[in-house]
Amino acid sequence: MTHSNKSSDPSSPATTALVIGAGQAGGPLAGALAKAGWQVTLIEREHVGGTCINEGCTPTKAMIASARAAHVARTSGALGVSAGPVQVDLNGIVDRVQGIVKDFREGSRSGVLKAGVELLDGQARFTGVRQVEVTLNGGGTRQLSADYVFINAGASPRWPELPGVRDVGAMTSRDILLLRELPAHLLILGGGYISLEFAQLYARLGSRVTVVETGERLLPREDEDVAAALQTVLEDEGVTFLLGAEAIQTHKKDGEIKLDIRQGNEPQTLTGSHLLVAVGRTPNTGGLNVEATGAKLGKHGEIVVDQHLRAAENVYALGDIKGGPAFTHISYDDFRIVRDALLHGKERDFHERPVPYTLFTDPQLGRVGLDRQGARKLGRPTRIYTLPMSSVARAIETGETAGLMRCVVDDATDLLLGATVLGSEGGEVMSALQLAMIGGLSSADLRNATLSHPTLCESINNLFMGKPETLSGKEENG
């Protein structure tokens, strides 16, 4: 779809736009449209910057850095360095983290205002086709309508249907970031990506940590040996995993949290000081009444969009609220897709883009494209190259040998179809392999590339020097 900006004609009013949610798609889009001459109103119910800046990437990764510092100090003896007893100042950690959040948030807010965007602090609700009522945080309401509407209202932590969970003071991934007392025993419901980051973080800060997961193994979307290797690392750091365990109910007794679970046929009661629920996220469509503007909701409450992110005529949904991969870089790319369609006449199908991601445990898990289990379902011959981090010179030198590198290669073209890196700076090494995929480099190109020694990326040479596992493409039916 192309768009002719009416503001180019001085006698015509500017094209109007409402942007609901100032996340990593909404904020940049509002600014880009305003700079192009549109009349843009951005509505944000809480904080500019969205989940990433306020309660996701920025604060969690800053806290992980503090936890890693404690871990390095505690384990420095392995490198021949003696350190005294590690003392953790959680108040100091939280103050540092929230200071970073405040700076990022204020920078984002300043950016949209400088672009000429009208910013309203309040809650939006659709009252008709591209018509919105805004309940302002300071009191009062505004009735607004526009030529275009863009919804970037994000998602929130999902609460499990567990009797008593709200009565015991359970926390979400958002709440725990403001916790200023170190849990003596942190119970975590859910064994997904968010759960594992917090499990290692608090174990390194000095908490006892128990993770309760209904599945029989961690991270079912990852190769089984990758998930098992990460589990072993976390167990070695003191995290306890109860897999195949169902939470039944929870209550408080004598100031402690009691969590009744059933693992197999065996009931048991766990006792903890704090409870974190990390069982997924829910799109923030409740109360928006998006159906009034012609959009439809999916079975999980997400806004249904076409391949160009349109939910209805001149209505778009971007970021987590549309479902699918909930990553900041995906939200930002949603912004680029919509911007290019409306301002530059260039349409792109969002289904065609790669979806890289990194789990910021230590070691990191970086992933893009196919892994081994994905290759088994592909239906054509592939080669699987795997290199243990214990064979990576740089990892040996730094004492970080847990994990592996893995690449899936198309047997006919020799091009990379996917990469998984569980290891030191796994996200960075995965990104290097993704750039090779974008550039159309073959495994032979990477095998023979001259890469700086001794770096982690240099071991991409070694990865493709090994003997691969070959898949015929018939494994799924065999």
TrEMBL record:
Cystine crosslinks: C52-C57
UniProt-annotated catalytic positions: H453 (proton acceptor)
Protein's UniProt keywords contain Nucleotide-binding: yes
Annotated Gene3D superfamilies: 3.30.390.30, FAD/NAD(P)-binding domain
Pfam families the UniProt entry points to: Pyr_redox_2, Pyr_redox_dim
All copies of domain Pyridine nucleotide-disulphide oxidoreductase dimerisation, residue ranges: 355-462
Cofactors demanded by this protein: FAD
FAD/NAD(P)-binding domain segment(s): 18-331
Family annotation (SUPFAM superfamilies): FAD/NAD(P)-binding domain, FAD/NAD-linked reductases, dimerisation (C-terminal) domain
Name the UniProt record assigns to this protein: PF00070 family, FAD-dependent NAD(P)-disulfide oxidoreductase
Keywords, sorted A to Z: FAD, Flavoprotein, NAD, Nucleotide-binding
Keyword NAD: yes
One MF annotation (Gene Ontology) recorded for this entry: flavin adenine dinucleotide binding
Cofactor note: Binds 1 FAD per subunit.
Binding residue positions for FAD: K61, D320
